[in-house]
Write a structure and sequence with these properties.
The protein is an alpha/beta fold and 1182 residues long. The protein has an 8-stranded parallel β-sheet. The protein has a 5-stranded antiparallel β-sheet with strand order 1-2-3-7-8. A hairpin with a 3-residue loop joins strand 2 and strand 3. Helix 25 crosses helix 35. The radius of gyration is 31 Å and the shape is globular. The two termini are 47 Å apart.
Length: 1182
């Protein structure tokens, strides 16, 4: 319409990843356009709810002075909540920005900087005035971090900014006639380069403004200088209390962090059990009562205390889910860390350390207005009129308090320069007599109803509310009264319940919650407390446990000596490891600042009942239902009884020795068979039976293995709660079922790299699967070119592309039948792969293009993928790089993975792997191995359902991955929606693995997971061993299919109507309330009623008979139209000729623009296929 004219416009075009579009999720574009993701959204929303009771200045509308308080309250109610609970992240930011800038009067750039701030704490180039401004703003609000680029306006001022990481492109140009264009890439608007007078790009945290009234562009430095001078921020911050290394310097012993003191240690007060207020005689009883065990001390706390690093482990997690475990476990074990994959990336906390921060203001947010400041010329006077009041907070440099920081916090109760922070202690224990009635109800199979634990949590919430009403600015939840007659309340339940109760009472912003608890020692537990509402943690008993750390031996033989660290030094090391671990867990969700992580509840709850979730973890994502308060109380009583047994010790037991011994519970390694030790699916007798059946090709041994392993699966895995509905089926002769030779084509090995395992092992896996018509996967370490070529029996048909891109070359990609993009790994989602330096030797270093002896850590994100659009682009790149290969994406199961899978299929993926949290690994942090990701059963069922409901299922092959061990597991995977099956642990056991779990130490005794030449010689595996085992497994799959009356595996896929929960599940106190109905929702009928029969036939072919799938016919046709095809037509003679014929020149120009997204990839494929990695001689193609 020519009559429509405007002086500014904002336009945004999105890639639709939302599988169920709705108007409520559309971007409103009232005040801003947002390109990217707000990774911190969950924490931001919780913080908004927490502050609703104290909205005075931050979101206080400018109201006429003559209005009554009642009238003002009406308007305030209309304007809240800012988060309406129905919109997208963009809508929430738009709402908040609109209220700040339009209703509350904040100048546009200051409102945006309050939400999206640049990284300032470690910035040595930033002046002190700007740092003071940012620190002041941090007292008002946590950052809303991306990766995001935001364009914003109030109608007069148009601006744009990037978040602190700067991971979204944002480029601008200014023309001679005054046109300003800012876009995510060059070429969005066609502008003659001769007309451009200035162009540039926004850097991390940078901002640019166009003031249409002034008629000029204002750059970042002028904006920040003006706003930082608009108020005396440094003076305001004099009201803050800083508790950090400097404030505690006078009392701490200045030991070197990871070694001996540099010179003579300075004077200070050493940490002792007396300082910790833990009696020497009670340490072991306290540790046992709070759930500590021997492995936790030796494998977790000891390495953290000795070397200041989180320990590594290997071979994944094969123990039961907490809701299936027979051990007494706290609610921490029911929480699994969430992580970013595909739609928003993780952050690399090592390489991007400058943007990471643990500093956090805590305590009451005082907002009463008593001072003012000017607006620095950016619009009308704004609402930043609270002066120094917001700065009257306690600023902690780190959330895990040492004894001195904790004492300094308590000392704030007294008067300090007119400011006090009174504290109140709430006891989080209850009398053991109150829980005695549980024994009888448990015997009667009564697992419902109120109990002492639940009643006490309600009392704690009421006591906390009363304390805040009485003025407590610091609320301490303390379990120190626990002992022979009192049981500690689960720390996570107490913190979560109090946090949510205070939010509902509109009191949360008036106090800080400090957890002084004994049960918290691991990084996972501390992250849980912070994510569910704690402001800081004082783990007094974890510090006391460090006195039990054994001294380490240095030297050898006669020269060996015992090295013992002081408790001071161990506490420092332990805190350093803990804080590094917290940053790592935050970074998995792409979060940089602790203030944005606190209260965000970025965990998925697996196996807790709805009443527990509703009271303690209100907004946490949950599935299954499960364990309630009574079962949790029973576990707490079991731990209490272990610590304070009612019966005396037998006469032959040394009481003094037993007083220092923690129980062996086998949480990480197999220890023993019995109710006091955890089950493991990789039990020694099971391993022996696998190897017997594989080496002897024994159906009898395999049948025994199936019986033993299925019994373990029944007690360890979700699928163990299911049974097949044979009573609904009509059996058929096994001879009418498709043969083993067809079934084994659906099998492949999971991604395991050459480097993590030895060359003979890697080649044996490939030879075995190739002989069956299946596939092996290179993992992320590349592959020796000597193994390339379709006729080579040791060639890996699946080539993986991971974030480190180790070994990824044009020749490597050109040799693939399938290219797999690893977005996450089951054993360590949100983290990159890790290969210790002593494994980076010889051919491994050469293939990975790295330096021998230097450890390799892949970054958590792909650094060219920060959105689903970037993933789609990489899929396109790889399709051009090898037009004949199927493109696969590897995901890890979590709530919501189905939506991600659908987005990837829309982006062009033809194959999606759903990996479970129990997948294997050569090296990973133990926290991730045990506490990240979800069961593949949930993720697979969700992905299949979402893809079917969106009409996408026929476009993609689904593969299940993660501790799939028996023929029954294979059938379960098929029934839940899987076309293919990936296995790694069991195949390696068939080749000789004995589960020593020393892969990360390079000391594998059977030559599998080592690069030590002498140990590699011990490898005795043969391809025939794995072939025998998989053939036996396929034969058992046929038997099950015959009982079901199903002839083809394809007809199994998605038939959840053939599964049901076992009735015996209701008789177990932990599983009685588990509900798998969502996982078993039938979608197979809707799928088969669809009209896309062509797509269905392609799916069948792709999963069984076709070696490669490049996508739909339309996608293959589009490749021929690309620019590379035109270049290739001119260069083919040069590629295919010998060196004497390389004289073809491309003289005529070929136009290229930004719609040509993948230039050169197809050309590199043809060169690599023809000439290998050597390529063309130099200077022959230009």
């Amino acid at each position: 319409d020519p009559s429509l004219a405007t002086h500014l416009a904002m336009v945004h075009s999105r890639f639709s990843t939302n599988t169920f579009p709705s108007w409520s999720r559309s971007q409103p574009f009232r005040r801003l356009c947002h390109n990217g993701e707000i990774n911190t959204l969950s924490g931001n929303k919780q913080a908004l709810r927490s502050r609703e009771g104290g909205l005075t200045s931050l979101l206080q509308p400018i109201l006429p002075s003559g209005m009554s308080e009642a009238q003002k309250n009406v308007i305030r109610r209309i304007l809240s909540p800012v988060d309406e609970g129905i919109g997208s992240d963009s809508a929430t930011v738009d709402n908040l920005f609109e209220q700040l800038s339009i209703i509350c009067g904040w100048p546009v750039p200051m409102a945006m900087m309050l939400l999206v701030r640049e990284a300032w704490r470690g910035n040595t180039t930033m002046n002190e005035e700007q740092k003071a401004m940012y620190r002041y703003l941090s007292c008002l609000s946590e950052p809303w971090d991306g990766p995001a680029m935001l364009a914003f306006t109030d109608g007069d001022v148009l601006g744009a900014t990037l978040d602190r990481n700067g991971l979204r492109p944002s480029r601008f140009m200014i023309t001679k006639d005054g046109l300003f264009v800012l876009s995510s890439e060059v070429g969005v608007v066609d502008v003659d380069s001769a007309e451009v007078v200035q162009k540039g790009r926004l850097g991390p945290g940078r901002m640019i403004l166009v003031d249409t009234k002034q008629g000029r562009v204002i750059l970042d430095s002028e904006i920040k200088d003006s706003l930082s001078g608009s108020a005396p921020f440094k003076q305001f911050l004099e009201q803050a209390v800083f508790i950090d290394a400097q404030s505690t310097k006078k009392v701490t012993v200045d030991d070197d962090l990871f070694g001996s003191p540099r010179g003579k240690a300075k004077k200070g007060i050493p940490i002792t059990l007396d300082i910790l207020d833990v009696p020497e005689t009670a340490v072991t009883e306290q540790l046992v009562m709070h759930g500590y065990f021997a492995e936790m001390l030796d494998m977790i706390l000891s390495p953290m205390a000795r070397v200041g690093q989180e320990p590594l482990g290997s071979m994944g997690h094969d123990a039961p889910l907490a809701c299936l475990s027979r051990l007494p476990l706290s609610s921490f074990y029911y929480m699994q860390q969430l992580f970013a994959e595909a739609t928003n990336p993780a952050i690399d906390p090592l390489r991007e350390a400058i943007v990471m921060s643990l500093e956090c203001p805590i305590g009451p947010q005082l907002m009463s207005c008593d001072e003012g400041c000017s607006a620095a010329g950016f619009g009308r006077p704004h609402a930043l009129t609270c002066g120094s009041n917001p700065a009257r907070r306690v600023v902690l440099d780190e959330p895990i308090l040492c004894p001195w920081r904790y004492q300094q916090l308590l000392d704030l109760d007294s008067e300090r320069d007119g400011t006090t922070f009174p504290f109140s202690v709430v006891d989080t224990t209850y009398r053991i007599e109150a829980a005695r009635d549980l024994r009888r109800s448990g015997a009667l199979r009564d697992f419902s109803g109120a109990c002492a634990l639940e009643s006490r949590i309600h009392d704690i919430c009421e006591e906390a509310e009363a304390a805040v009403h009485d003025g407590a600015g610091i609320l301490i939840l303390c379990d120190r009264r626990a002992g022979p007659s009192r049981v500690p309340v689960d720390a996570l339940l107490a913190v979560g319940a109090v946090h949510h109760h205070l939010i509902k009472c509109r009191l949360r912003s008036q106090t800080a919650i400090i957890a002084e608890v004994g049960s918290v020692s691991s990084i996972h537990q501390m992250c849980c407390l912070l994510a569910f509402g704690a402001d800081a943690i004082y783990p007094y008993l974890a510090y006391a446990a460090l006195t039990r750390v054994r001294p380490t031996s240095t030297g050898a033989g006669k020269d060996s000596t015992l090295s013992e660290l002081s408790l001071n030094k161990m506490v420092k090391n332990y805190r350093a490891a803990t804080h590094a671990g917290i940053l790592k867990v935050m970074s998995k969700m792409g979060i940089s600042c602790l203030s944005s992580y606190k209260g965000a509840q970025l965990f998925q709850c697996i196996g807790l009942a709805a009443d527990v979730k509703n009271l303690c973890f209100d907004a946490c994502m949950s599935s299954l239902g499960g364990v309630g308060f009574r079962a949790l109380q029973e576990d707490a009583l079991r731990l209490h009884t272990n610590a304070y047994p009612s019966r005396p010790l037998p006469p032959l037991v040394d009481a003094e020795t037993s007083r220092h011994v923690l129980p062996e519970m086998g949480m990480y390694h197999f220890r023993s068979v019995g109710n006091s030790s955890e089950l493991h699916m990789n039990a020694p007798d099971v391993i022996a039976k696998i190897q017997e059946s594989a080496r002897k090709d024994s159906p009898v041994a395999y049948k025994e293995y199936e019986e033993w392993e299925n019994a373990l699966v029944d007690e360890c895995e979700l699928r163990g709660l299911l049974e097949i509905c044979y009573d609904k089926c009509t059996p058929i002769p096994v001879e009418s079922v498709e043969t083993e030779s067809e079934i084994v084509k659906r099998f492949c090995t999971g991604a395991v790299s050459f480097g993590a395992i030895s060359a003979p092992t890697h080649e044996t896996l490939a030879a075995a699967t190739n002989s069956l018509g299946g596939r092996s996967n290179t993992g992320e370490g590349g592959e020796d070119e000597a193994r390339f070529g379709e006729e080579n029996e040791t060639r890996s048909r699946i080539k993986q592309v991971a974030s480190g891109r180790f070994g990824v070359t044009a020749a490597y990609l050109a040799d693939a039948d399938e290219i797999q993009i690893k977005l996450a790994q089951g054993a360590k989602p949100g983290e990159g792969g890790e290969l210790p330096g002593y494994k980076v030797v010889g051919a491994i270093a050469e293939i990975r293009k790295s330096t021998p002896g230097v450890g390799l850590i892949s970054p958590p994100p792909h650094h060219d993928m920060y959105s689903i659009e970037d993933v789609a682009q990489l899929i396109s790149d790889l399709k051009h790089t090898n037009p004949t290969a199927r493109i696969s994406l590897k995901l890890v199961s979590k709530i919501g993975v189905g939506i991600i899978a659908a987005g990837l299929v829309k982006g062009g993926a033809g194959h999606v792997v759903i990996s479970g949290n129990n997948g294997g690994t050569g090296a990973a942090k133990l926290t991730s191995i045990k506490h990240a990701g979800g069961p593949w059963e949930l993720g697979l069922a969700e992905s299949h359902q979402v893809l079917v409901l969106n009409g996408l299922r026929d476009r993609v092959v689904l593969q299940a991955d993660g501790q799939i061990r028996t023929a029954r597991d294979v059938v379960y995977a098929g029934l839940l929606g899987s076309d293919e099956i990936a296995m790694t642990t069991v195949p390696m056991i068939t080749l000789g693995c004995v589960m020593m779990r020393k892969c990360h130490l390079n000391t594998c005794p059977v030559g599998i997971a080592t690069q030590d030449p002498e140990l590699v010689k011990k490898f005795a595996g043969q391809p025939e061993h794995l072939v025998n085992f998989l053939w036996l497994m396929a034969g058992e799959v046929r038997q099950i299919m015959a009982r079901l009356g199903i002839k083809r595996f394809q007809d199994l896929i998605g038939r959840t109507d053939l599964l049901r929960m076992k009735s015996v599940v209701r008789e177990n106190r932990k599983t009685a309330e588990i509900d798998l109905s969502d996982m078993l929702k039938p979608t197979w009928d809707a799928w088969r009623r669809g009209d896309s029969q062509l797509g269905r036939r392609q799916l069948e072919d792709a999963s069984v008979t076709e070696s490669t799938v490049a996508g739909s016919p339309e996608s293959r046709a589009s490749l021929a139209e690309d620019l590379d095809e035109r270049i290739l037509a001119r260069a083919r003679a040069m590629i295919e000729g010998d060196d004497r014929d390389l004289t073809v020149a491309i003289k005529d120009p070929i136009l290229i623009n930004n719609s040509d997204r993948t230039v050169g990839a197809r050309l590199s494929y043809e060169i690599a296929k023809e000439r290998g990695s050597a390529g063309l001689p130099e200077v022959h193609l230009n």
